[in-house]
């Protein structure tokens, strides 16, 4: 397999800022490379923790989140910790402050870190709970970091 994933790319992967080609290449690589798999999980933890520490006294990201019409928005979810290469279709059923309610087809483990890509943003969030509801699951997540998609930054 090719070289290990570069540190910069690990962080951009977690933030959802890589082009699909590069992200796909990383997916292929981490299937066989525990070292890079660990690096992505560590970056997800560190970005989420770092943001938590920075958040004291700052809530501009929360306001941005609320001002966006995320409700009923469809997106794609990837579990970053424990790392999964699956992308699950997700619908945001409600948004309040830092919390989001999601409808998702598969169970998510509480405490896991997930990346949620919507049309407007890429969110890094921690799963607080997940309950079965009919044929799907309802999950509550706390948003730890919001990273604009490249399209949204122009
Ligand atoms: Zn590697």
Characterize the structure shown:
This protein is of the alpha+beta class and 154 residues long. It has 2 domains: 7-54, no CATH class; 60-153, Thrombin, subunit H, CATH 2.40.10.220. Helices cover 34% and strands 35% of the residues. It is built from 5 helices and 6 strands. A 6-stranded antiparallel barrel has the order 1-2-3-6-5-4. A hairpin with a 2-residue loop joins β2 and β3. α1 packs across α3. The radius of gyration is 15 Å and the shape is globular. The mean pLDDT is 86. It binds zinc ion (ZN). Zinc ion is lined by residues 4-5, 29, 33, 35-36.
Reported by name, the CATH topology of the largest domain is Thrombin, subunit H
Low-confidence stretches: none
Number of helices: 5
User: Strand fraction band?
Assistant: 35-45%
How far the N terminus sits from the C terminus, by CA atoms, comes to: 35 Å
Helix percentage range: 25-40%
Element-level helix/strand string: HHHHEEEEEEH
- Total DSSP E strands: 6
| CATH uppermost class of the largest domain | Mainly Beta
Small-molecule binders: zinc ion
Overall tally of structural domains: 2
Mean pLDDT: 86
Please give the largest β-sheet.
6 strands, antiparallel, barrel
Strand order of the largest sheet: 1-2-3-6-5-4
The CATH superfamily label of the largest domain reads predicted glycosyltransferase like domains
Q: Which structural category do the helix and sheet elements fall into?
A: alpha+beta
Shape: globular
Architecture of the largest domain, CATH level 2? Beta Barrel
Q: What is the gyration radius calculated from CA atoms?
A: 15 Å
